[in-house]
Write a structure and sequence with these properties.
The chain has six helices and eleven strands. By secondary structure, it is α+β, with helices and mostly antiparallel strands. The structure holds zinc ion.
């Protein structure tokens, strides 16, 4: 599933591609891709001129000059393409045609992605936590945690911080030497501080590399991101840790896979002592 850096990359490309254009026609190929009534969606879309394209968490937001606002959530396999390739043709869900003759297609093999109309931009996506792109914002969220849930689950909780998924949660925890099963409320002040610095740094670096290109994510321009060349643990199960050489392990936490270096990321012992001091460098930039 695309996470904050991948969605931000798509939003930037989409903005260049459709801003200022007017939706001339629209076709819904699979009505359940639209949350709410497709008839109303179509009525509000037709004639809408795109004023801006924005992002909130993992949602793409498209605002019309008339105040119309809708979101696209890509979920597992959703993608936006200008020109569908042969493999996309059986998975077209919604197609927009613009006044200049260009098209935008929402393609979604597994059909979990959703387009949704909102009363206004301010009312969109209720319940989402803040954007984790500033240290102070992340620190404030971490300091407020009073839960014994594993820190990995907390980082994936979109109501606490919006936009982090499996890739960047695993990378941030490795960078800070924190084991993903550590209860959130057991993080000490130093760990909170390091995590609050690592999350925005890792997300921004990934945005700069146009995201991580894995199986399911493709940018609109069909240009690959490059962040997959810079992952320390995600997708590296069995490969040697880039810090210490220990094989990276894959754990299941709350139904999701977690990638961990068992040497660099140790669980804290009861009583506040740590089983191991993480790599002093924390994260060595490559
Ligand atoms: Zn290691």
């Amino acid at each position: 599933m695309p996470e904050l850096p991948e969605v931000e990359t798509i939003v930037r490309q989409l903005r260049r591609r459709i801003k200022g254009k007017t939706i001339a026609s629209m076709r819904v190929h699979w009505r359940r891709s639209i949350e709410g009534r497709p008839g109303e969606f179509r009525r509000r879309m037709l004639g809408m001129t795109v004023a801006t394209v924005c992002r909130r968490g993992k949602y793409i937001g498209i605002a019309g000059a008339d105040g119309t606002f809708f979101t696209i959530h890509l979920r597992m396999t959703g993608k936006l393409v200008g020109e569908p390739v042969a493999a996309d043709r059986g998975h077209l869900r919604v197609s927009f045609a613009f006044n200049d003759g260009t098209m935008l297609h929402f393609v979604d093999a597994r059909k979990f992605g959703r387009l949704r109309l909102w009363p206004c931009r301010g009312a969109a996506c209720p319940g989402l936590g803040p954007e984790p792109l500033r240290d102070a914002v992340v620190l404030s969220a971490l300091r407020g945690l009073r839960t014994r849930r594993p820190i990995k689950s907390v980082l994936l909780d979109q109501t606490i911080l919006a936009g982090i998924g499996n890739i960047y949660a695993d990378e941030a925890l490795f960078a800070t030497g924190i084991h993903p099963l550590t209860p959130a409320m057991a993080l000490n002040a130093g760990q909170q501080q390091r995590l609050a610095e690592a999350v925005p740094r890792i997300l921004k670096a990934a945005i700069g590399r146009r995201g991580t290109t894995l199986r399911n994510y493709r940018s609109i321009d069909d240009r690959s991101g490059e962040n997959q060349e810079h992952l320390f643990v995600y997708g590296r199960a069995g490969a040697p840790c880039l810090e210490c050489g220990t094989p990276i392990e894959k754990l299941r936490i709350a139904g999701r896979s977690s990638h961990v270096c068992p040497q660099c990321q140790k669980m804290p012992l009861a009583g506040g002592r740590r089983a191991h001091t993480p790599c002093a460098s924390g994260l060595r930039p490559r």
